[in-house]
Write a structure and sequence with these properties.
Elements lengths: L1 E8 L9 E8 L6 H11 L19 E4 L2 E4 L11 E5 L6 E3 L2 E2 L2 H9 L19 H5 L18 H5 L5 H12 L7 H8 L13 H5 L6 H15 L2
Parallel strand pairs: 1-5
Antiparallel strand pairs: 1-2, 3-4, 3-5, 6-7
Helix pairs in contact: 2-5, 5-6, 5-8
The structure holds iron/sulfur cluster, FE3-S4 cluster and FE2/S2 (inorganic) cluster.
Length: 232
């Protein structure tokens, strides 16, 4: 079928403002939006700029605003969207060019929450043991691929760009509830800050946007409850 693909284009070196361009693209039944972007770039306009790597929903590099909702271009099939598809960069981030945004602020927040295992106890002869139930406690949040679809669809982040945002909280959750980790208190302190969990208004956009179907809001609420529990 033929698809009208509208793409918000912006080259800061040439354009005064972003503008829409439409491309008529042939799509097969199994095509994903990423295939259409490749068709445009390879056969119509080589200057079109977007990020992608794995093409299998793993690397998280091709989150875009597709028909009004944040999704991975490599995961969403054209037939799920119909013959008119519009694509814009994920919101609330500086646009570098076309669909590429500057992710540095996003990753700076990620680094803020200490997204690594902390345990200074002597290393055991074998692995640090963990029960099945203990592992299950943070299983959901291990699946995050840092695509930023959640944070960039969050109205609280749009209103207050310094909000750490759902992705950073999900990453903190993954370690806070890991029984082998010893820095939960430090992370809870960071997330109890003005730009931490209190900025969440339980809008649930993050849950809708997450391509890994992580219960993002649930993770935020668990972290919030852990912060409250420290003072009760
Ligand atoms: Fe992407 Fe989901 Fe991780 Fe947010 S929680 S960064 S939407 S994978
Ligand atoms: Fe934002 Fe998700 Fe909370 S969209 S307001 S972080 S529930
Ligand atoms: Fe890797 Fe889409 S290209 S997630």
């Amino acid at each position: 079928m033929q698809v009208d693909l509208r793409i918000l284009r912006y080259d800061p070196e040439r354009d005064a403002a972003p503008h829409w361009e439409t491309y008529a693209v042939e799509a097969g039944p199994m095509d994903r939006v990423l295939n259409l972007l490749h068709t445009v770039k390879n056969t119509m306009d080589g200057t079109l700029t977007f990020r992608r790597s794995c093409a299998h929903g793993i690397c998280g590099s091709d989150a875009m605003l597709i028909n009004g909702r944040n999704r991975l271009a490599c995961k969403i099939r054209v037939e799920q969207l119909g013959r008119r598809i519009s694509i814009a960069p994920i919101g609330g981030m500086p646009v570098v060019k076309d669909l590429v945004v500057d992710m540095e602020g996003f990753f700076a927040k990620y680094r803020t929450v200490m997204p690594f295992l902390v345990n200074d106890a002597p290393v055991p002869e074998r692995e640090r043991r963990q029960s099945v139930a203990d592992r299950e406690r943070f299983d959901d949040t291990t699946r995050c691929i840092l695509c930023a679809a959640c944070t960039t669809s969050c109205p609280s982040f749009w209103a207050r760009p310094t909000y750490l945002g759902p992705a950073a909280i999900v990453q903190a959750h993954r370690f806070i509830f890991d029984s082998r980790d010893t820095a939960a208190e430090d992370r809870l302190e960071i997330l109890a800050d003005d730009d931490g969990v209190w900025r969440c208004r339980t809008t649930f956009n993050c849950v809708t946007a997450c391509p890994r179907e992580i219960n993002v809001t649930g993770a935020i609420l668990e972290v919030t409850r852990a912060i409250v529990a420290r003072h009760s």
